[in-house]
Amino acid sequence: MDNRPHPLYEDALALLTASGFVSLGIFLFHQVGLLTGGTAGLALLLQQITGVSFGLLFFGINLPFYALAWLRMGPRFTLNTFLSVAAVSWMTDHLNAVLLIGKVEPLYAALIGGSLIGMGLLIMFRHRSSLGGFNILALFIQERVGIRAGKLQMGLDCAIVIASFFVVSPWLLLLSIVAAIFCNLVLTLNHKPGRYQVA
Question: pTM score, two decimals?
Fold first, then answer.
């Protein structure tokens, strides 16, 4: 398999596409009041509580994690992640200027929104980028303390879900879990190192 890094123009186009997918998924979530995990989920939750825009919250929440990203993943990953987070923040806040939706069924938003976010993350991962936040913190703590990253990530995501009990209805909470499952299914089924290796 070709492990050479992508040229900058390929990274730029891929991250722009990925950010478009993620922002559209989050936009669908926001239309019906769904939540998700990670810093995006925390930003959606705080948006419902404070009324501050998702983009501003998402961008701000991620700022402390870039130092860890630089130490743990290197400068190129950190720059790509910063650009991805900035693009998702801006696109999500401005989608209503180019897209008006009169009605969205919550189940549709969960299934398609979760899939879109999963596709966006898949593209980001393949171009050495992410949506920052808790996954960087989890990897850093695993390296320094020995707590497994998956368990810590799950604990942080569960904390967001528990906090959302006070904000959304049980039905929307259930659909938020469905959306997270679809997002992770996209990643699980498609992000397997060596799967597409040419013989």
Answer: 0.84
**Three-state secondary structure call for residue 98:** coil
CA 132 distance to own-chain centroid: 8
C-beta separation of 128 from 5 below 8 A: yes
Q: Under a CB-based contact definition with an 8 Å cutoff, are residues 66 and 157 in contact?
A: no
Query: What average pLDDT does range 143-154 have in this prediction?
Result: 70
Query: What span, in angstroms and rounded, lies between the C-alpha atoms of 144 and 139?
Result: 9
32 near 104, Cβ under 8 Å?
yes
**CA–CA separation, 58 vs 44, rounded Å?**
8
User: What is the C-alpha separation between 46 and 58, in angstroms, rounded?
Assistant: 10
3-class DSSP state of 155: helix
| Alpha carbons 180 and 132: distance in angstroms, whole number | 17
Q: Supply the DSSP symbol for 189.
A: H
Question: Of the candidates 23, 11, 35, which has an alpha carbon nearest to the alpha carbon of residue 178?
Answer: 35
In degrees, rounded to 5, the angle at the alpha carbon of residue 43 between the alpha carbons of residues 65 and 122 is: 65
Question: Hey, what are 8's tokens?
Answer: 């900058």
Q: What does the alpha-carbon distance between residue 55 and residue 74 come to, in Å, rounded to a whole number?
A: 25
Please, which residues have CB within 8 angstroms of residue 19's CB and are 6 or more apart in sequence?
84, 87, 88, 91, 120
Q: What is the pLDDT of residues 159-168, one digit of tens each?
A: 777 777 778 8
